[in-house]
Amino acid sequence: MNEEEHFKRLNDYFTKSKFGYDFFLYGAKHFSFYPENKKISEKEAQNLMHDLIGSKLSLNKSMIVLDAGCGQGVVSTYLAKKFGCRIEGISMVDFEIGKANELAKNIGVSDKANYYLMDYSNMKFKNSYFDRIYTIETLCHSADIKKTMREFFRVLKRGGKVAFFEYNLADDNKFTDYELDIFDKVIYSTAADSLKEFKPDRFENIIKETGFRKLEVEDITYNIKPSLNRLRRFASIPYLFVKLFNLQKSFPNLTIAVEFYKFVERNLFEYKIFSAEK
Fold first, then answer.
1. What is the rounded CA–CA span in Å between residue 194 and residue 242?
2. What's the pLDDT tens digit per position in 232-241?
């Protein structure tokens, strides 16, 4: 894989998608957590997802934490403010670093949150630097998921914890040819080149083979489904034209909102938390 071409696609995608993420997800780039049988706003559900990261990692103010794929700093600034931990955020997307630093300044956590333009498969942090590492829907954008995981293992302290909030897909033979074509278009347009590594047992095996132990996997598909359904409702009408003219590659987020909801309904797409220790 040509890494330069991959990073260009990645930057192109997030630059073109910026308005949508800002308008519909308040600058975040992830689904939100809805408790069972409780009606709350998307913003409240988003904060509950952030709280879940803090809970899974048992965050406290003594810790140095890596946000791998920090986006515009929505998650990391929230965690720094609530838990008092120091967070180093990295992104491969140019404009996000400035937005993250601006957000940290605006909510008063500039002393706790720092951001760098950096590939999480080739980090400049020293060995055994972090107490905790998390990702939230970013690992699919790795150009080489195994190399990324080895880097996480390198920079994590002995006894440190990781939490990956990521997707999980059914095996290819469960999808129709049309659905597989949709995936290929979405993967190319969003530079999600490692998405197909998130198959039954495959990602878990990568985690274990890297050297992490005490792996735990939690399925929260039910809890993120209302968030996906909200986006589906917004996308349904414009997607009629996208589908009619076969424009899925040009409008990947509309495609994801509608088609991936169908995948969830058919148990082809799940959302899981993978947590482990070094």
1. 25
2. 999 999 999 9
